[in-house]
Amino acid sequence: QVQLVESGGGLVQAGGSLRLSCAASGRTFSRYGMGWFRQAPGKEREFVAAISWSTGSTYYADSMKGRFTISRDNAKNTVYLQMNSLNPEDTAVYYCAAALHGSTMTPTYEYDYWGQGTQVTVSS
Description:
Blueprint: E1 2-7, E2 10-13, E3 18-26, E4 33-39, E5 46-51, E6 58-60, E7 68-73, E8 78-83, E9 92-99, E10 113-114, E11 118-123
Parallel strand pairs: 2-11
Antiparallel strand pairs: 1-3, 3-8, 4-5, 4-9, 5-6, 7-8, 9-10, 9-11
């Protein structure tokens, strides 16, 4: 069993920045890929970014490149999402997820564990 807890969400003005954290506990997860997803009101959950535990390779949705950065701290079992140049359309609940055997890392069905989510609200 792996437990994931997100933190760092909140209210920020357009153009501002936030850093989300995802703390993992339970089983070891050297083979787990980690991903961030988000879900805005009236929309389905969508892929944001992912990172491989084994290689550190990163993956981003096209609209996130240059604005968002995913990273990890293996000693702390924590994954981060640095979010810059935020705009109101980034407003959503952001979820952290862990995949034991990821492939493309973008579909939700590849992930085995999910956090409860953290709210990000961007005002104009």
